[in-house]
Design goal:
By secondary structure, the chain is mainly alpha-helical. It is 51% helix and 8% strand. The chain is built from 13 helices and 7 strands. Strands 1-2-5 form a 3-stranded antiparallel beta sheet.
C-alpha cells in the first residue's frame, strides 16, 4: 500500500478531530506530505526516509512551525502502522524532530492591561477580562454563557465560536461535550454579571452578533476594535503585542505567583504541559541558584 492510500484509510479513524483540525490536516497533506511521500510504499519507511522528508521541508523553506506540524502528522501515521505490525522496528527511532520553539509571548503589564480593557466597547472589555482573568481563548470568550458559572469561583469552558464556521463548536483538542473548569476570580464574575444586567442574555449567551442576536458573536467584533486601539496610539501597548496577549497575561499571572505549570496547562486547555512549558518557560520563577538556596535551607533545618 502506498502512503497516500494508507493515510486516506487512517483519516477515517480520526473522528475526534474538530473541523478546523481536519482542514489543517488536509492542508499539511496536500502541500507537504503527499508531494514528498504520497507514492512511497508503506513498507519502505525507515529513519532515513523520515530524515530525508525533514530535510526536504528545510530546503523548500517551510517554517519551523510547519515542519513541526507536518512531522507530527507523519509520526502519527507511522506509529499507527508500527502498532499494526507493519514494521519490526520503529521507523522513527533515531530521528531528531524539527525543533520548534514558539516566539516569546508579548505580555502587557498590569497597568497596560487596565488601560487596554477599557479602550473598546463593553464587549471588548468582557472578552479582555475573560482572556486575562480566566485564560480563555478568543473564541471561548465569545461563547461566554451565564449558565457556565457553575460556582461562585468556577467557570466551565464548554464550547467556542469557531472562526471558520461562525458557529458554536467543541473546544480545541476536545470532543463535543468535553469541558474544562477554570478558576473564576471575583472581579471577572462581577464583569460577567454587570454585562448580563446591562445588555441581557440570549439563551444564557452574553455576546451575540450586533445585527442579529440569533447568531454568535463575530471575530471581527474585537479584531477591528483592537486594530483601532493600536492605531490610535492613545493606549500604552507593548511592541509586538496581539489581542492574544491578554491570555498570555493570565499565564504570567499564574506562574509568577507560584501556581504549578501543570494546573496552568489544564486551565488554559493546552494539549500537553509541553506546550505550556515551551511558550512560558521564561516566566517560571526561580533559577538553579535559587533552587540551591532553597534546598540548602531545607538541609540545614
Amino acid at each position: 500500500m502506498r502512503f497516500e492510500e494508507y493515510v486516506e484509510e487512517w483519516k477515517g479513524g480520526q473522528r475526534h478531530l474538530a473541523a478546523s483540525s481536519v482542514r489543517h490536516l488536509e492542508s499539511l497533506l496536500e502541500h507537504h506530505l503527499y508531494p514528498a511521500l504520497g507514492s512511497r510504499r508503506m513498507n519502505s519507511f525507515d529513519h532515513k526516509v523520515v530524515d530525508g522528508f525533514i530535510r526536504t521541508m528545510e530546503r523548500n523553506g517551510a517554517g519551523l512551525a510547519t515542519q513541526s506540524n507536518a512531522f507530527d502528522k507523519l509520526r502519527a501515521v507511522l506509529l499507527d502502522a508500527h502498532r499494526l505490525g507493519l514494521y519490526g522496528d520503529n521507523p522513527l527511532d533515531g530521528v531528531k524532530p524539527p525543533q520548534y520553539d514558539p516566539a516569546r509571548a508579548v505580555i502587557p503589564s498590569l497597568e497596560q492591561l487596565r488601560a487596554i480593557r477599557t479602550a473598546g466597547d463593553d464587549a471588548f472589555m468582557l472578552v479582555a477580562d475573560l482572556m486575562s482573568g480566566c485564560g480563555l481563548r478568543n473564541g471561548e470568550a465569545y461563547a461566554v454563557n451565564l449558565n457556565n458559572m457553575v460556582a461562585d469561583d468556577v467557570y466551565r469552558v464548554s464550547e467556542q465560536v469557531v472562526q471558520s464556521t461562525r458557529r458554536y463548536g467543541p473546544l480545541k483538542h476536545r470532543k463535543a461535550g468535553e469541558y474544562r473548569d477554570v478558576p473564576l476570580p471575583a472581579r471577572i464574575r462581577e464583569t460577567i454579571e454587570w454585562y448580563a444586567d446591562k445588555h441581557g442574555t440570549f439563551d444564557g449567551y452574553l455576546l451575540r452578533q450586533p445585527t442579529d442576536p440569533r447568531k454568535p458573536y463575530p471575530y471581527w467584533g474585537t479584531d477591528n476594535q483592537w486594530k483601532r486601539i493600536k492605531a490610535s496610539g492613545e493606549v500604552d501597548i507593548p511592541e509586538g503585542m496581539v489581542l492574544y496577549g491578554n491570555r498570555h497575561f493570565y499565564a504570567s499571572n499564574c506562574l509568577s505567583n507560584g501556581i504549578p505549570i501543570t494546573d496552568v496547562a489544564e486551565w488554559m486547555g493546552h494539549k500537553s504541559v509541553d506546550v505550556t512549558f515551551k511558550i512560558y518557560r521564561h516566566l517560571l520563577p526561580g533559577s538553579i541558584g535559587k533552587a540551591a538556596q532553597v534546598l540548602d535551607m531545607a538541609l540545614a533545618a
